[in-house]
Amino acid sequence: MNDKINAYNNILELVGNTPLVKLNKITENFTGDFYAKLEAFNPGHSSKDRIAAHIIEEAERKGILTEGSTIIETTSGNTGFSIAMVSIIRGYNCILAVSSKSSTDKIDMLRSMGAKVYVCPAHVSADDPRSYYQVAKRLHEETEGSIYINQYFNELNIAAHYKSTGPEIWEQTNGNITHLVACSGTGGTISGTARFLKEQNPAVEVIGVDAFGSVLKKYHETGEFDSNEVYPYRIEGLGKNLIPGATDFEAIDEFIKVTDEESAHTARAISKTEGIFAGYTCGAVMQAAKQLDAAGRFGKDSKVVLIFPDHGSRYMSKIYSDQWMENQGFLNNNTVEETQQIQVIH
């Protein structure tokens, strides 16, 4: 009798190998074929599982981390969740400095995973002592035996996606990918994936998605950091008010900007047309594809891969809340129908 149990040793063995799914209804009037790389199928429900596992494994290999050590990180929510998840399995303490822009869903999830969370004001400069960058640095200095992941300036952020996301997409498309469209925050996902794909085929076009209120697009085009570009925006995990060292700007062909409002509505549209419960940044990357298609950027033979970074459950108090959408001024007569689907029987 075969008594072997076909089970994974722990949840970290589920990181990576996420599915590529063809988009049908939301792209039915687009030119070319469009595919979503569903990073919500990682066990921590986002692409950040890849960097958390890779960076922590490297720190262990180098002897920097030992059982009982404390891992400190700056996060808009997803990286923090992934680090907290890895910390539980590996036996580390976890302290996270989180932007106040992060949804309450994300912050509650971090606490639920045993992390100690410091919520820092979102709309302050990166060098302000209250910013989540500076708070994380201070906590690292004050906490004996801690390491600071520093995903924004960590080359391993890029390496994680070079070793996993890029090869997966190349294999899943049988090398037929023509365009990659991905959001850029720390820049690790798009940079690592782009490096690998361009090594296989330099003709693959890589388009980064940026937010209005972020400096990335202009920096890519001019090489200059323009503080006048910076102003508050609502999308989490996309764009930056500094230049991340984990962004390989040479691997990215161009950036396109999307608005908070259109990205929110497009995320909701993905959920209702494709049955994919899409996060805010998924809406942003889909919105970028929509704008690129309208500009005639794709041909009938185009094979376009969109990286969908996370899951809609992390935005229940934001883009999937009609109250939040209304408070932002995002609901109007054109969208009233989607808000009137609940009828209470008294």
Number of helices: 11
Low-confidence stretches: none
Basic shape: globular
Determine the mean pLDDT. Answer: 93
Q: What is the alpha-carbon Rg in Å?
A: 20 Å
Helix content: 25-40%
Strand content: 15-25%
What does this protein look like?
The chain starts with 19 loop residues before the first strand and ends in a 19-residue tail after the last helix. It has eleven helices and ten strands. With 346 residues, the chain is an alpha/beta fold. The model has no long low-confidence stretch (mean pLDDT 93). Helix content is 35%, strand content 15%. Helix 1 crosses helix 2 and helix 6 packs across helix 7. The strands form two sheets. Strands 1-2-10-7-8-9 form a six-stranded mixed beta sheet, sandwiched between helices. A four-stranded parallel beta sheet has the order 5-4-3-6, sandwiched between helices. The radius of gyration is 20 Å and the shape is globular. The longest helix is centred in the C-terminal third of the chain and has 15 residues.
Key terms for this structure?
346 residues; alpha/beta; 6-stranded mixed sheet; 10 strands; 15% strand; globular
Task: Please specify the SSE layout and strand pairing.
Elements lengths: L19 E3 L10 E6 L9 H14 L8 E6 L2 H13 L2 E7 L4 H9 L3 E5 L11 H11 L3 E3 L6 H9 L1 H8 L6 E5 L4 H13 L4 E7 L4 H7 L31 E5 L1 H15 L5 H15 L8 E6 L13 H6 L19
Parallel strand pairs: 2-10, 3-4, 3-6, 4-5, 7-8, 7-10, 8-9
Antiparallel strand pairs: 1-2
Helix pairs in contact: 1-2, 1-5, 5-7, 6-7, 9-10
